[in-house]
Amino acid sequence: MTLAGIHHSGGKDNWGTPLDFFERLKGRFDFQLDVCAEPWSAKCSDFYTIDDDGLSKPWKTWSWCNPPYSNILGWYKKACYEAERGNSSVLLTFARTDTKAFHEYALRASEIVFLKGRIKFVDPETQQSKDPAPSPSMLVVFDKDCLGAAKFSTLSVNPGGTLL
After folding, report:
1. Total number of domains in the chain
2. Can you give the residue range of the structural domain that contains 136?
3. Which residues pair with 81 in a beta bridge?
4. Any bridge partners for residue 40, and if so which?
5. Which of 79, 82, 150, 152 could form a disulfide with 59 if both were Cys (CB 3.0 to 4.6 A apart)?
6. 39, exposed or middle or buried, with CB in 10 Å at 0-12, 13-18, 19+?
7. Reported pTM
8. pLDDT tens across 142-163, in order?
9. C-alpha Rg value of the chain to the nearest Å
């Protein structure tokens, strides 16, 4: 899959978020909507599929987004837009600090959490986690109540690591 210029095995663009990693985030964020999912990968009971087109639909506070990285700029732009209209979200993306998307939108977020270690995303064909991602990841938090100059923190990918 082409992920912001990096090829991940299989040419897929719909890798899922590992459930154990997502569960750790729920203690801080009350996710109501997964804006970019498939039935097998949805992390919330309310979710948008590729056919629903989460880029064209309204989001909720809080929304979860593990977007297809082939259009990362569009997802950053939408998250920023939604936060300005009162809908907070968290995006899971590669930590590509040299991209236009990062400089135009991520730095306008509330918080950027760099992940220690590599996430083992869920393969859409096998629905299993196997190999670590080819690049480091980060969470980009667009909190409707405190947009602006993003603060930075870290979080371990491994269970047992402290959350924020």
Report:
1. 1
2. 2-156
3. none
4. none
5. 82
6. exposed
7. 0.86
8. 999 988 878 888 888 876 544 4
9. 14
